[in-house]
Every structure is written in structure tokens, then in C-alpha cells.
Amino acid sequence: MLLPTGTGEARQLTRSNVDHVSGGWFPDGTRMVFVGSEGAGHQSRSYLLNLDGTEKPLTPEGLVGTLVTPDGRFVLVSRARTGEWQLFSVDGGSAQRITALQADDIPLRFTPDGRTLDVARVVNLRVQFYRVDLQSGSRKLLRDVGPDDLVGVAIVGAPAISPDGRSFGYQFRRTISSLYGVDGLK
């Protein structure tokens, strides 16, 4: 669904048999890239979606991603479970292999010049935010955050970074239970 930010009507964009999972906008706001699958027997892949509702596959099955470079020419994609990263050309050009990223990196945003990428890693119930230079592979730790009290914390995830790169967020799930013992019941 395309929802207006002001007055207007919500508009259904997709009407295909593709199961839409997640998406991202191109910088100019004229189209989207999304991850989806055509159902049983098909692996997920990335698709291009125009605002008139037309969509077409972008990547071969098994290559997925929704993060678009600032110039709108490439989408960062990975092959599930292998840690192989590529910048996949939107216009049919050749893909560029990216060796600077690790399998468990979570890509969050390109910096405006497109040369570096802000990523997160979840390690020992903490989120580490890094800025990775895509050419040299160097990485700079930006922030290491996590819950101060780990009692009952089982999951930490959903890292986020603000567009200006100055604010960091994450979520965690805490489950606290009470156990009562009763003596003398027959």
C-alpha cells in the first residue's frame, strides 16, 4: 500500500502473485526495491517496483537486498547464509563484489557519498555500530550499545541509525517470570 503523508487516498501498488516481504525506497522517491518470492519452489529475490504498480525481478533467485546506493544505481544484496555481498546494478550492468562486509553485518545505510556503509552487528546481547569503507575494508566502531541490566534479556536486535548518523537505536525483549513454591499441599 502507498499511503499519503497528507490528504489523499491509500493506493494498492501490487497485484501480482509475489509474496512481498520487505522494501526500500530509491533516493528520488520514484520507485522501490523489495524482497519477495513467487511461492513454493522459488527462492526469494529482489524486485523493482514502480509507483504505477509494475514490478520486475532485479536479481536472480537467492540474491536479496533493499538498500539502494545514494546515486540510485545499485542495490546492496547478499546471498542467503553465505555472506557473499554485491552491489547489484539496477540498469543491468555488472555486479560489484563487496569483500569489506562480513556475513553477520546488518547493513543500515550508505553515507551520502556512497563510499562507506553503516552496519550493525549483534554480539553477546549488544549492538555494535560500524562505519565500513567499501574500498579499503577498514571499519570504525561508532557505538556499542545494549541493555545495562541483562536479567531476562534473551533477544537484542532491530538496529537503526538516524539519517544524519548521530543517533542509534535497537530493541530488546525482556521476559521476567515469578516462580512460587508451596509446601504442605496434599
Describe this structure in words.
- This protein is mainly beta and 186 residues long.
- The protein has 2 domains: 1-98; 102-186, no CATH class.
- It contains no helices and 14 strands.
- The chain has strands at 19-25, 31-37, 45-50, 55-57, 63-68, 74-79, 84-89, 96-98, 106-110, 116-123, 126-133, 139-145, 153-161, 168-174.
- Strands 1-2-3-4 form a 4-stranded antiparallel β-sheet, with no helix packed on it. Strands 5-6-7-8 form a 4-stranded antiparallel β-sheet, with no helix packed on it. It has a 4-stranded antiparallel β-sheet with strand order 9-10-11-12, with no helix packed on it.
Architecture blueprint of SSEs:
Elements: E1 19-25, E2 31-37, E3 45-50, E4 55-57, E5 63-68, E6 74-79, E7 84-89, E8 96-98, E9 106-110, E10 116-123, E11 126-133, E12 139-145, E13 153-161, E14 168-174
Antiparallel strand pairs: 1-2, 2-3, 3-4, 5-6, 6-7, 7-8, 9-10, 10-11, 11-12, 13-14
Strand content: over 45%
Number of helices: 0
Strand order of the largest sheet: 1-2-3-4
> What value does the Rg take, in angstroms?
20 Å
Number of strands: 14
How helical, in percent, are the residues?
A: under 10%
Main sheet attributes: strand count, strand direction, barrel closure: 4 strands, antiparallel
Class from secondary-structure proportions: mainly beta
How far apart are the termini? 60 Å
Q: What is the global morphology?
A: globular
Uncertain ranges: none
